[in-house]
Amino acid sequence: MEHNTQLSVSRRDLLIAGASTAAATAVPRSAGAQVQPPSIPEGVQLPVTLQVNGQEHRLDLDTRTTLLDALREHLHLTGTKKGCDHGQCGACTVLVNGRRVVSCLSLAVMNQGAAVTTIEGLGTPQSPHAMQAAFVRHDGFQCGYCTPGQICSAVGVLDEIKRGMPSHASEDIVAQPLVSAHELRERMSGNLCRCGAYSNIVDAITEVAGEGRT
């Protein structure tokens, strides 16, 4: 019993001491005083060379600059859209060395010397890429905000299939993937369309794949 009593007192004293220490270290603040937010350290500027749509661009960028912001804010290629800015919607998809990349999650310095293709580099109104023309024919867009990312992703998808890369929808990961609606929906699932033009998008991709014009 004596041991338990001493233990109880010890715990009580510990709590009292802790409360006293917290009260003693609390910093009083006068009414109306402004709380200063923590300072954000300045970024480091580095020279970055990007090959965008066949042209070389040399930029001095904060190392925290994303590829998306480098394209939009520094090179003024605004076809690449900023949607969620968290890599969840696919609106900012571009092609880097032929492979599709969500540019909001890729730092510009990570793409030093890489060949970047944006929607502007795929085709022009006078000479559109086959995928761009197919999207128009099949009404693969409505508001158009997600369309640049959809088209760049679709071009990347057909290249993946051509190279034999399997997806989660591939029944046999060794066999050559098929250009099926099920396969295309799985591969394009990272590109969201709020207007719901998914079936038309699949039709457009299927047409281009059938023509062999990737």
From TrEMBL:
Pfam families: Fer2 (PF00111), Fer2_2 (PF01799). CDD domains: fer2. Gene3D superfamilies: 3.10.20.30, [2Fe-2S]-binding domain (1.10.150.120). InterPro entries: 2Fe-2S-bd, 2Fe-2S-bd_dom_sf, 2Fe-2S_ferredoxin-like_sf, 2Fe-2S_ferredoxin-type, 2Fe2S_fd_BS, Aldehyde_Oxdr_Iron-Sulfur, Beta-grasp_dom_sf, TAT_signal. Transmembrane segments: none annotated. Residues 46-122 form the 2Fe-2S ferredoxin-type domain. This is Aldehyde dehydrogenase iron-sulfur subunit. It comes from the Bacteria. The lineage of its organism: Bacteria, Pseudomonadati, Pseudomonadota, Betaproteobacteria, Burkholderiales. Its EC number is 1.2.99.6. One of its GO terms (molecular function) is carboxylate reductase activity. Keywords: 2Fe-2S, Iron, Iron-sulfur, Metal-binding, Oxidoreductase. PANTHER family: ALDEHYDE OXIDOREDUCTASE IRON-SULFUR-BINDING SUBUNIT PAOA (PTHR45331:SF1), OXIDOREDUCTASE, IRON-SULPHUR BINDING SUBUNIT-RELATED-RELATED (PTHR45331). GO terms for cellular component: periplasmic space. It comes from Delftia lacustris. Coiled coil: none annotated.
